[in-house]
Amino acid sequence: MRALRDVARLQPGERVLVRGGTGGVGNAVVQIAAALGARVAVLASPSSGDLVSSLGATEFFDYTTATPASVGKADVIVDTVGTDLLAWRRTLAADGRMVTVAFDSLAGIAAIGRSRVYGSARIRTFAGEPPAGALATLTQFVDKHHIRGLVHNTYPLNDIAEAHRAFAAGGVRGKIAIRIAE
User: Fold this and answer.
1) pLDDT per residue over 18-58, tens digit each?
2) 2-124 belongs to which homologous superfamily?
3) Domain residues of the chain, as ranges?
4) pTM value?
5) Cβ-count burial 92-107 (b if 16+ within 10 Å, e if not)
6) Integer Cα distance of 106 and 116 in angstroms
7) Alpha-carbon gap, residue 180 to 182, rounded angstroms
């Protein structure tokens, strides 16, 4: 919510590209952007088209074959992947805004810094500390728009190593949950 509304200043009707739209953060971004009236395009794994459509996306791109040029211009990009930030930044419309909630390495940090030096500060980040009242506002928004969390799988606490292996293997849709007690 903060990435879209507060940092990117998303307006209804704008085209939002969500990189990593089926992950734990990305699936929420897709749903919230759609609820805010955006046209939502998602870059995700090849088998995710139906899922992202059910979340509110109107366009789907297979991340294994899509390029920044093939995806087209976006008013807002929310990046949960953290790679190739400068290449994706070039897909922004003239007044476009990019918010990243991840960066893969020092190269990602350098890309964020470079975007602030050369041209407008279009790759934005934000601290995870929400302002007072933000969680209450988010709760009301989630209830009103029926935003749903996705749980990839649930593991008992004694299988936490297996949960970690599943996460590290990739391909997780939503979150992995750990059940503390039976």
Assistant:
1) 999 988 889 999 999 999 999 999 999 998 889 999 999 99
2) NAD(P)-binding Rossmann-like Domain (3.40.50.720)
3) 2-124, 150-182
4) 0.80
5) beeebbbbbbbbeeee
6) 16
7) 7
Task: Give the mean pLDDT of the chain.
Answer: 84
Q: How far apart are CA 31 and CA 54, in angstroms?
A: 9
Is it the case that residue 82 has pLDDT exceeding 60?
yes
Nearest to 86 by CA among 98, 74, 101, 70: 98
The alpha carbon of residue 46 and the mean position of all alpha carbons in its chain are separated, in whole angstroms, by 17
Alpha-carbon span 9 to 2, nearest angstrom: 9
pLDDT at 71: 96
CA distance 132 to 80: 25
Residue 10 sits at the vertex; the CA angle it makes with 38 and 130, to the nearest 5 degrees, is: 120
Per-residue pLDDT tens digits for 121-157: 476 666 667 777 777 777 787 778 787 787 888 999 9
Could you give the CA distance from residue 39 to residue 45 in angstroms, rounded to a whole number? 20
Q: In Å, how far from its chain's centre is CA 115?
A: 19
